[in-house]
Amino acid sequence: MSALLSENDLNDFISPGLACIKPTETIKEETSSSNELEVGKESNEVEKVSISLQDCLACSGCITSSEEILLGQQSYTVFLEAWRKLPEDSVLAVSIAPQSRLSLAKYYKAELDDFDRGFVNFMHKYFGARYVVGTQIGRNITIKQTNEELVRRKQFEASAKPALCAVCPGFVLYAEKSKPELVPFLLDVKSPQQITGSLLKQKNKNIYHLAVMPCFDKKLEASRKDGENEVDCVITPREFVTMLGELQVDINDYADVSQSRSLLSACSPEGWDPEIHWASNEGSSSGGFALQYVLHQQKMHPGSEVHIVEGKNSDITEYRLLNSVDGEILASSSQVYGFRNIQNMVRKLSNSGTKARNVKVLRKRSANTTSRGGTSASAADPVKTDFVEVMACPGGCINGGGLLNGEQNSSRRRALAKTLDNEYRDRLPSVYNESNVDYDMPYKYSFSPVEKSSDVVTVGNTW
Ligand code: SF4
Ligand code: SF4
User: Fold this and answer.
1) pLDDT (tens digit, 9 = 90+) per residue, 301-343?
2) Which atom of ligand 2 is nearest to the CA of 191?
3) Which of 94, 135, 187, 329 has the most CB atoms at less than 10 Å from its CB?
4) C-beta separation of 95 from 200 below 8 A
5) Digit-coded pLDDT (tens) for 31-54
6) How far is the CA of 65 from the centre of ligand 1 (A)?
7) ipTM computed for the complex
8) Sign of the C-alpha dihedral, residues 292, 294, 295, 297?
């Protein structure tokens, strides 16, 4: 359900596709209490196939990507129903990802600040939301815990390398269910969506948390057993717009520009600074985890330099931290986006079987790098870096399948993603400062490879 698949592509197929790699369980409905069969009469009843949202692999080629699966458990209709039945003592909290904000602001032809205020105002006045927040506080914790874990792993070479970022559920589900050999590589730090949910629920256990996220895969993430109760419902910007249409609401009616940012403060939990949770950080528009790791290492190596090495396409980038005296690579990370690049990376990882980097090789490679921002004679090689920010969507989260890109043509769609990417950098202030990030517990996934059973009908997925 990455950018390759969107809600518009969904259909009403209930049966798993020829390609579904999820073992399915059939439920026979009893048609008569006696269970007797009538000779010469065949039942017209089709056996129901039961696949829950948690089972879904998010592989974009499966026809079981039906509305039954995707939207049955997490959709705006489910949210509206839950909201109408919300008990008196419950509190509604809404979080929204920066990519969703930019996409919605563009859709409504509004400046980002104006959209943010209109969104908060609408959620507060129409739905009575007590909290309406951005996801940067959650993301700051993801970055900090990721950096700490990577530094720890670098000291203990026995850890599988490279560590693979686990904030993209499209990739995580693929790894867990289709490539179990990748599971030891996954870094178990939770995503900003889940940490934001956990922080909100710590404020009040009777919170109902709605998250507005850039893709459908985030619904699957919210359904994970190791993240239960952190997020109650995920909707995408596309669903948000549909919901407003159904409610006959024009969000511009809520965009009162006379309202200052105090509205954002009023809808922030105690201790949450809106200047932080509505902001962003340096790095990619998918979270910047790869760059942040290298910047963190740079602080530990005064005088070192960060070099950016372009890959063979725009969806591969490597960051190298070089000793400015002898060019030794001190730390490195990379971004790998899109199914094709991920497949190549997985192939290399499976073939290499290497666990630790060869320092001599690194030194040799470092001699070919050029100064920051330039391309290097030695191409980016993500599998040899310490950490890979893996994103299932080509272009990353700024091209998520739930955003309002409205373009079926892939090159125009990428152009729009590029525009949003530029706006991400121009409009969102970078606030990450690890010394200000406070957390009192580790936020960890618990990954487990899922063995394919022999009764699986393998498929036509696009991986
Ligand atoms: S293979 Fe796929 S995306 Fe594909 S359903 Fe079966 S479960 Fe979900
Ligand atoms: S890259 Fe981002 S938008 Fe795309 S599937 Fe992964 S988390 Fe969702």
Assistant:
1) 999 999 999 999 999 999 999 999 999 999 999 999 998 899 8
2) 7
3) 135
4) yes
5) 444 444 444 444 444 444 454 554
6) 6
7) 0.78
8) positive
